[in-house]
Amino acid sequence: MLDPGTINLLTIFILAIFVGNEVISKVPPTLHTPLMSGSNAISGIAVVGAILAIQTEGTLGTYLGLAALIFATINVVGGFLVTDRMLRMFKKK
Predict the structure, then answer these.
(1) What are the tens digits of pLDDT across the range 47-91?
(2) How far apart are CA 27 and CA 64, in angstroms?
């Protein structure tokens, strides 16, 4: 049986999935690259939060923190790659 704290965390997690999907689907393609480079700072904060979550007691928090760390790191690296590609487009040959 899940305790109320775990149910609250799962509820917030599921709501964040739906809200994130709605927000991302409303972004036009012309704004995607600038917003991606701006989201690197937010993803960096998520990496720090995920590292803190890994250190919590209990296996569920540890596994969710590890998953968050992996996804946030992928997001940071991808954001830097997209930003680098965007900046190379503006360099003179």
Answers:
(1) 888 888 888 888 888 888 899 899 988 888 888 887 788 778 877
(2) 27
Q: What is the pLDDT of residue 37?
A: 67
Q: Distance from CA of residue 76 to its chain's centroid?
A: 8
For 88, the 3-state DSSP assignment is helix
DSSP 28: -
Q: What is the residue-averaged pLDDT of the chain?
A: 84
- Residues listed for the chain: 93
CB atoms within 10 A of CB 53: 18
Output helix, strand, coil percentages for the chain, rounded to the nearest 5. 85, 0, 15
Backbone φ/ψ region at 58: left (φ over 0), alpha (ψ -120 to 50), beta = left
In a 3-state reduction of DSSP, which class is residue 18? helix
